[in-house]
C-alpha cells in the first residue's frame, strides 16, 4: 500500500502548491489522478515517488514510513519506484546512449553485471531496436526516447510505477503501445500504479479508478485498498 497523508508540498514553503492532500493506493491497484495543468498533481507525484520531500505530512510505502526523499530514503524504498515523466528530454542525460540510459539504475545499485541482459530484454519489450540503443537522445524521436525512459523505469522491477503525464507528448499509437507495456508489467509483477494526467478518457480506460484533484482534499481513498 502507498499512503500519502495530509501532504503539503511545493518549492517555496511560503507558497505550497499542494495543501493537505491525502491519497491511498492499494497494492497492485491502478489509480488515475485527474487535474488541470498547474494544480499540483505533478508535485504530489514526485512526493509519492520519493523525489520531493513534503513540507508536512507523511508517506508510507508498504507499511514503512518514509524518512526522507531521494538519497535520504532507504535504498529499498527508493528502488521500489519506477517513474516516467512527461518530457523525456528533461529526464535523460543527453550524453548517454540509450543502452546506458536504461542500464543506469542497475549500475547505480551495484548490479552492473546484469545490465547487458536486462537492457536487451527490456529493449525488445518497449520496441527499441539494437541500432537505436546505440544512439543518444538527440538522435531519436520523443517517442523512442520515452520508450527508453520506460525501460529504465522497469529495469529494477519496481513494486510501484508513477506515470506523470507519460503519454502527453506522444502520438496515439506510441501512447497505446507504452500503456500496454506498463499493463503487461503490472499483470506479471503485481505492481501498483499512480497515473497522473488530464485526459479523463485515457485514465478511465487505463486505471481501476480515476480521482479528481479536488476530491483529494476530502481525503478520499480509492477502491482496491
List the helices and strands and how they pair.
Blueprint: E1 2-9, E2 18-25, E3 30-34, H1 41-48, E4 56-61, E5 64-65, H2 75-78, E6 81-84, H3 88-91, H4 98-108, H5 115-126, H6 130-133, H7 142-154, E7 160-164, H8 172-189, E8 192-197, H9 200-206, E9 209-212
Q: Give the low-confidence spans.
A: 218-225
Helix residue percentage: 25-40%
Number of strands: 9
**Counting H and I runs of at least 4 residues, what is the number of helices?**
9
Query: What are the secondary-structure elements, in order, as H or E?
Result: EEEHEEHEHHHHHEHEHE
Task: Record keyword descriptors for this entry.
globular, four-stranded antiparallel beta sheet, disordered C terminus, alpha/beta, about 220 residues
What can be said about this structure in brief?
This protein is α/β, with parallel strands linked by helices. The chain has nine helices and nine strands.
Structure description:
It is a single chain. With 225 residues, the protein is α/β, with parallel strands linked by helices. 36% of the residues lie in helices and 21% in strands. The strands form 2 sheets. A 5-stranded parallel beta sheet has the order 6-7-8-3-9, with helices on both faces. Strands 2-1-4-5 form a 4-stranded antiparallel beta sheet. Residues 218-225 have low confidence and may be disordered.
